[in-house]
Design goal:
Layout: E1 8-12, H1 22-34, E2 39-43, H2 52-62, E3 65-72, H3 83-102, E4 107-115, H4 125-144, E5 148-151, H5 165-175, E6 180-185, H6 186-192, H7 198-202, E7 207-212, H8 227-236, E8 242-245, H9 257-260, H10 271-290
Parallel strand pairs: 1-2, 1-8, 2-3, 3-4, 4-5, 5-6, 6-7, 7-8
Helix pairs in contact: 1-2, 3-4, 4-5, 8-10
Bound molecules: manganese (II) ion.
Length: 292
């Protein structure tokens, strides 16, 4: 008898490939399926680089779904007081939304609320309000396409706007649309939260997507994060959504994302055994946490 897991397991495309040519798209989706994952997360920092038709066809061929994620850039940032910069950020978010819809996906998440990178100043009331207004437009457009929007709190070196789950929930309340959720990431939680369970339990109804990664972004089972605490919290709130494994190494370089995430070191070279092991690690923890 196979055990029915409560969660779909995803893997980030950067485990497999650095770009999204037709060949890279095929390789990433094929490897995702062969490693036993249910979903691939495709970075859409530049939505124009994704051939939507080809991606959709390839996903269908292999029988899996994709989610998309991105972080904005400083010249196209809704977390800004300059409305021209905000407008460019909004346009990028709308383009990414079209990609998600075009490839048959139902999820767009990540650092949608700000640039992905270190700010040299704190966020302001005005930049927060601008981000909230843009995200409201995005959420409303997403509703018509059946797409959920996920806000991923990231550490202070990657955004000045939303670093904690509580802050993400505050933003969700300001946006006031039902299809906006918190996209949690244990790597960032490990840096910014008080602990790895109480923010999840206290904000249970808002948790919509989960990123799992080691404390140094390497393979699972290495690093210093207490995964039992995290999976225990997810089981406690009866979380039934996607859990996606994220890992980055200088072995595979995305022209924008790897630099923004400061991936300077080689944490693995062989992605296939690393991805297989990560899935096994997640399955074991989910089974244990849920007493399956
Ligand atoms: Mn993440």
């Amino acid at each position: 008898m196979t055990i029915q897991l409560p969660n779909k397991l995803g893997v980030h495309a950067l485990v497999w490939v650095g770009g999204w040519t037709h060949e890279e798209c095929r390789e990433a989706i094929k490897n995702t399926v062969e490693a036993g994952y249910d979903l691939i997360e495709i970075p859409a920092l530049d939505p124009s680089l994704i051939d939507v038709e080809h991606t959709k066809k390839t996903l269908e061929e292999f029988g899996i779904k994709a989610a998309c994620s991105l972080g904005l850039s400083f010249d196209a940032d809704i977390n800004n007081e300059d409305l021209e910069v905000v407008k460019r950020g909004e346009a990028k978010l709308m383009a990414a939304l079209d990609v998600v819809a075009g490839i048959g996906g139902d999820y767009l998440g990540g650092v949608l609320f700000s640039a992905l990178g270190k700010y040299s100043h704190p966020a302001t009331k005005v930049s927060w309000a601008n981000a909230a207004a843009s995200l409201k437009k995005l959420a409303i457009a997403a509703q018509a396409k059946g797409i959920t929007i996920g806000l991923e709190p990231v550490n202070r070196y990657e955004s000045n706007l939303i670093n904690t789950i509580d802050q993400a929930v505050e933003m969700i309340k300001d946006i006031g649309e039902p299809n906006v959720k918190v996209h949690i990431d244990i790597y960032h939680m490990n840096i910014e939260e008080q602990d790895l369970s109480s923010p999840i339990i206290n904000n249970a109804e808002h948790i919509g997507y989960v990123h799992i990664g080691a404390s140094h972004r390497g393979g699972l089972g290495t690093g210093n994060v207490d995964f039992d605490e995290l999976f225990g919290a997810l089981a406690k709130i009866n979380y039934k959504g996607v859990i996606t494994f994220e890992s980055f190494s200088s072995a595979i370089v995305h022209p924008d994302l790897s630099l923004a995430l400061a991936i300077w070191r080689n944490l693995w070279t062989e992605n296939k055994p690393m991805a297989l092991n990560a899935r096994k690690y997640m399955v074991e923890h989910i089974i244990r946490a849920n007493k399956l």
